[in-house]
Design brief:
The structure holds two protein chains of two kinds.
Chain A lengths: L2 H19 L2 H26 L8 H17 L4 H23 L4 H21 L1 H4 L22 H23 L2 H18 L4 H27 L9 H14 L6 H17 L5 H15 L3 H36 L1
Helix pairs in contact in A: 1-7, 2-7, 2-9, 2-10, 2-11, 3-4, 3-5, 3-9, 4-5, 4-9, 8-9, 10-11, 10-13, 11-12
Chain B lengths: L4 E12 L2 E12 L3 E5 L6 H9 L6 E6 L2 E2 L5 H6 L2 E3 L12 H12 L16 H13 L15 H14 L4 E5 L7 H12 L6 E5 L3 H7 L2 E6 L2 E6 L1 H6 L1 H8 L1 H6 L1
Helix pairs in contact in B: 3-4, 3-5
Classes of the chains: A mainly alpha, B alpha/beta.
């Protein structure tokens, strides 16, 4: 139990040191992994923990990104104010879409989230005066953190994202195994039974949707700070699809799975796209292989490998215990 | 002095299309009573339970719980207020361990279920975990505490189904064939544990094993084709000619 936080802290320190050793190119890739990691982690609350598979998560990413971007252009240069506005919009959007779609189950829930997010997409696409339409939203200047500290270069942005990610994972690691977290898992396992042991499951599903959507908005806000630009393609349903793939490849319902999934996809995309334009084909193939051979994702593979290693160690430990028994039987004979 | 009614059904009916599954059932249950419910297959016993528990909406009539008309209460609210049920077919969180299943019930009773900032373990929630361990000890299931429910035998799952209802602080406990598919030993164990429940807990139990009902219940209700045909003490019901007719056929009943 106590190994988790230590490993997490070590990883955090390692990540802090990265910009001192690697070029800005790699730092940017890491920033992208962290942002998509936040996005995938947020979807995992819904898909992995509550068992509600959504195909409309990009809407919240978009709401957070556009609201943060617009706030940065029009109101404020403070990062907390602008991100806060982004979160607020994502929260409100999640409230509306959640109330509509959590009434449905399974496939119908998926279709409703998809439809809602596509409505949001066309809103963004067509409301040219505010969102810039298909040109996207650009001209977002670096933001202030406290007083004079400004995220004026990509390394600072990386550190900011890293801190946000660390706080988020810390909170989630507590939440995942908390009493409320177990209510969500119960709903994933058997919603009907949860109702008959006295849980208002509709309420908890909405809470899950709100947390998930608001965190998705946070990912969008971070993205716009990192990128300085957001366009409607990031809100399109294919973006929802690719974050879902990250969650599935990384490991549904685990704390680190979605982050690892995001890293896997981003790295694969970076490497493969330098050789061929058809990198989507490779990711598609990887996805199919995972679904068939490793349905629990990369984390599932790790756990299985760990179990095999632990078992072997146990067998080695047991051997001395067996010898006396053999001796005893000989003595009896 | 007459005890207050915990449950009263007035003209309760349930129709599926043209089929009348429950037709005009009126009955009252006083607090603390132990009521058995029997009837041939398709008599509407489970449908009646589903309506009392809020899993099915009645087509007509009313359900009152103490002084409240509860027709419009959703099932989770009825459970919160003390109407707790078990299912005819095991209906559990199969992917979770026995302990986790019970924790889900008990954390709601202890009002800990909305806490999200602390990991659920014995250190953070000592009283909750002690309660679970006590329950498992009482039922002799400690060894399965960390086992996933899906890996357990049907009989053990059945016991967990019942423990989960009992753990839910019932005032009115609805047991839908609790001993179905269990061995004689397991049946005896379950019945004795049900009999040990505090006397203020009202129990309604659907059961096919008539001996179990007649030996342990204060009152037996017989349903046939959706209507109530007999209601009385086990002795009264045993000699009721209508009941004999259903269970033994017309001529044998006449000869008996």
């Amino acid at each position: 139990m106590k190994k988790g936080p230590i490993k997490g802290t070590l990883l955090f320190l390692l990540m802090v040191l990265v910009p001192f050793f690697l070029s800005i190119y790699y730092v940017n890739i890491l920033s992208e992994i962290l942002i998509l990691g936040v996005f995938a982690v947020s979807l995992n609350i819904l898909v992995g923990q509550t068992g509600m598979v959504s195909l409309g998560h990009a809407a919240f990413f978009g709401a957070g990104a556009y609201a943060t971007g617009l706030a940065a252009i029009k109101f404020s240069t403070n990062i907390f104010v602008t991100l806060g506005i982004g979160l607020l919009f994502a929260f409100l959007l999640a409230l509306i879409i959640g109330l509509l779609s959590t009434k449905a189950h399974g496939f119908y829930f998926l279709m409703l989230t998809l439809a809602c997010s596509q409505i949001f997409y066309s809103l963004v696409y067509q409301w040219t005066t505010v969102t810039g339409g298909s040109n996207g939203l650009s001209g977002i200047a670096p933001l202030d953190v406290f007083g004079d500290i400004r995220l004026s270069n990509q390394v600072f942005v990386y550190y900011f994202i890293l801190v946000v990610m660390a706080i988020l994972l810390f909170l989630l690691s507590r939440f995942l195994h908390s009493p409320l977290g177990s209510v969500f898992i119960g709903i994933k396992e058997n919603e009907e039974r949860m109702k008959s042991i006295g849980y208002n499951t509709a309420l908890y599903k909405n809470i899950s949707f709100l947390i998930s959507g608001t965190m998705g908005g946070l990912a969008g806000g971070l993205y716009v700070i990192f990128n300085g630009f957001i366009s409607p393609t990031d809100v399109y349903w294919t973006a929802s699809g690719s974050v879902l793939i990250m969650v599935l490849i990384g490991g549904v319902g685990t704390l680190w799975g979605p982050v690892i999934g995001a890293a896997f996809i981003v790295i694969l995309e970076t490497i493969v796209s330098s050789y061929t334009e058809n990198w989507m084909m490779i990711i598609g193939t990887a996805f199919i292989l995972f679904v068939i051979f490793a349905p629990n994702g990369i984390v599932g593979i790790f756990n299985r490998a760990k179990r095999i290693v632990v078992k072997q160690q146990k067998i080695e430990h047991k051997e001395p215990n067996i010898i006396p028994i053999k001796q005893q039987t000989k003595m009896d004979g | 002095m007459k005890k207050e009614n915990i449950l009263s059904l007035k003209g309760l009916s349930k129709h599926f299309g043209g089929i009348k599954v429950i037709e005009d059932v009126t009955l009252e249950v006083t607090a603390g009573e132990r009521v058995g419910l029997i009837g041939p297959n398709g008599a509407g016993k489970s449908t009646l339970f589903n309506m009392i528990a809020g899993d099915l909406e009645p087509s007509g009539g009313s359900i009152s719980y103490f002084a409240d008309m509860i027709n419009r209460w959703p099932n989770y609210k009825r459970t919160e207020q003390g109407i707790v049920r078990t299912f005819q077919k095991n209906n559990l969180m199969l992917g979770l361990t026995v302990k986790e299943n019970l924790l889900l019930v008990l954390q709601r009773i202890d009002k800990k279920h909305t806490q999200w900032w602390k990991t659920a373990n014995k250190k953070n929630y000592p009283s909750l975990y002690e309660k679970v361990e006590k329950l498992l000890y009482e039922w002799g299931l400690q060894e399965y505490s960390q086992t996933k429910v899906q890996d357990l035998s049907y009989g053990v799952q059945r016991q967990i189904e019942i423990i989960m209802a009992i753990a839910g602080n019932p005032k009115l406990l609805l047991l839908d064939e609790p001993t179905a598919g269990m061995s004689q030993l397991e049946t005896d164990q379950i019945i004795s544990l049900i009999n040990k429940l505090p006397s203020e807990v009202t129990i309604m139990m659907i059961e096919h094993d008539i001996e179990v009902l007649f030996g342990n219940m204060d009152r037996v209700i017989v349903l046939h084709a959706g209507t109530l045909i007999a209601d009385g003490s086990p002795e009264e019901v045993r000699v009721n000619p209508d009941v004999k007719e259903i269970y033994m056929g017309k001529e044998e009943a006449a000869n008996a």
